[in-house]
Amino acid sequence: xxxxxxxxxxxxxxxxxxxxxxxxxxxxxxxxxxxxxxxxxxxxxxxxxxxxxxxxxxxxxxxxxxxxxxxxxxxxxxxxxxxxxxxxxxxxxxxxxxxxxxxxxxxxxxxxxxxxxxxxxxxxxxxxxxxxxxxxxxxxxxxxxxxxxxxxxxxxxxxxxxxxxxxxxxxxxxxxxxxxxxxxxxxxxxxxxxxxxxxxxxxxxxxxxxxxxxxxxxxxxxxxxxxxxxxxxxxxxxxxxxxxxxxxxxxxxxxxxxxxxxxxxxxxxxxxxxxxxxxxxxxxxxxxxxxxxxxxxxxxxxxxxxxxxxxxxxxxxxxxxxxxxxxxxxxxxxxxxxxxxxxxxxxxxxxxxxxxxxxxxxxxxxxxxxxxxxxxxxxx
Length: 380
Ligand code: P1T
Hints:
The protein is an alpha/beta fold and 380 residues long. It is built from 13 helices and 12 strands.
């Protein structure tokens, strides 16, 4: 099955043996009748499993070219489950530019449980080798990174993690399986904030993991059930519906993202635009190789270069909405330093480019002329 067909049909067989409904029913139930203790049809309690969630998990696994999918109550709950594979004394090597909430989970929760983190630039994958020792158990990669749009060579990182028998997890939230499939490039775990492009309509908070290895899937399933951060069936239905249009939405996100990136690049009031589709983006070659297009996320700094100029600009936008999050059909603008990345200490975030004048756009699927006009009037 090819990708666009998978978004609609992947993993979706025998979803309603009772009435043959085309969409899976929303099984709004906590529990399932047993004929005798242990005598059930595959589901016994909805934390452990629910048919609507099962349909979604199979869909997500299918589009990511993986065998096993797991859904969680949020993207962070999915990351939390991966980190729970570790023990005190274990070490993690992570990209230094990543979602502020992931950084907060690593440094404010798991560090206190004795897990050690190294936050490093991975644009040159070989750099990772300098931090590997016998305690290294996980490499955590975000690509494109949030919000600086750096690109990490997943295949090159996978060659290193395979050599040292370290798990490689890739947060695929910005790209989605439409643009890149980390498992095909050698990653062990692909993670999503399904809140974003997979759901696609800014109406659900959810996370997911997909893996190929059976033993790893069983360990993660154990954590999913034992810790219990599972999504409800209604939300699973909504994300499953979202995935069915992922490919057409992503196409438009990419087209509009490109138009916005090029318009900003020549605007006199903009100093720098971060978008991996530019030929002069430092990792453009890798992006071209591992992604099928460049996505709808664009970050930029104002020429004025001040906090005041950035704040004024985002306040003036009318079609773009000033809000946290990304990946919905509507265009959003964010100010990472005070919003999504406020939990990263100022000196650390400025080192990686998250300065006070940085603005991040999630370019939606509206008519692009309206988006360009909106940016123009705000920049003026
Ligand atoms: O919000 P949640 O569903 O828990 O997902 C967390 C998360 C994980 N990974 C990446 C790359 C993310 O961007 C996010 C959430 N990000 C935002 C809310 C944001 O505006 O960047």
